[in-house]
Amino acid sequence: MKDFIFESTPKIVFGAGSIAYLVRELNILKKKSAFFICDPVIEKTIFFNDLSGKLKKEGFIVNIFSEIVPDPDFDSCDMARDAIVAAGSDIVIGIGGGSAMDIAKVAAITAKNRKKAKDLVKNPELCEPGMPLVLIPTTAGTGSEVTHIGIFSDNDEKLKTGIVSPYLYADVAILDPEITVSMPETVTAHSGTDAIIHALEALTSKLATPFTDLLAEEALGILYRNILPAFEDGNNIEARSNMLYGSMLAGKAFANSSVAAIHAFAYPIGAEFHIPHGLANSIMLIPVLKFNLNSDIEKYCRAARAIGVQTTGLSEAEILNRLLFKLEFLLDRLKIKRSLGYYGVTESDIPRLALSVMKVTRLLSNNPGEVLLEDAERLYREAM
Predict the structure, then answer these.
(1) What class, spelled out in words, does domain 185-382 have in CATH?
(2) Which of the listed residues 129, 131, 177, 302 has the most CB atoms within 10 Å of its CB?
(3) What confidence tens digit (pLDDT) does each residue in 174-187 have?
(4) Residue 159: pLDDT band by 50, 70, 90 thresholds?
(5) Distant-in-sequence, close-in-space partners of 361: CB < 8 Å, separation ≥ 6
(6) CA–CA separation, 338 vs 340, rounded Å?
């Protein structure tokens, strides 16, 4: 048995209507001044207005920071930090997609230690226990509510950078599938595919353990079976519940075994061309997967079985081909346009993108196959 350490969010509240338990959780933590971090769309939703109104009626002080944009940078974190300090709040609540939750995680630390977000990248030892933190996802995809990672755009490097620390884990994660029903079709597709890739890369990462394998395989099966029902009928609460649950399992898995080259290749195109994270991963899924397949045949065969490939009597090559076919078929059904050229990338951009991806050593080092600079250029060209 392989030795391992497993860390995770200490408390998860899951279920339809579970957002109502936020009051209880704040009382358990003995906090009375809540600082919400969300995007402008969430701030205007009925459920958020109901939630903040209920807190005020219960005697809580409520402050809101909603200056969240896709692909947030370090300045966004610092703005949130300053707002928290100015409000004098005693607990941070991140509610939304990955961007809002990642900012909440880092700002909860920097509001307490008064550091800048980018300082935590340059000096990870500056990460230390922050303010109490509750995370509430409104999408089923990032798994950020149960990870110790925050991803931000480094505008100087034109690259996405991760801040990783056990102090980024939330004290409580509340997962309510009812608040994911309003997700648009494209967000369902992109965030759901992102979760599938989290599970796939967690399973095949060089840092995978028997424990993360269990989580990743379970997540793969749940996510693959439910993403199309959720995409085709946004009000399908059972599918929405399963997607949120599967995304959380995948998050727990990759928080401990890491993701790898698919995410690494997504970072430069996301940072420079502002391609949403889940979409960027979807674009790079098939090229990188084809590159990796023969590096860990046993794990990719397990992935194939997890998504429903009947492997009895098939050769390994046939199993791997069916894995590719089922994933490509899924991306087509989800109406995901997977050509980099469609999003403004040109052939002349590829050498620069390849150089950028080679800097993402934190993820490339976990990939089952070694990626060289010439491989990076070829894989980006395949995605054109």
Answers:
(1) mainly alpha
(2) 177
(3) 999 999 998 899 99
(4) confident
(5) none
(6) 6
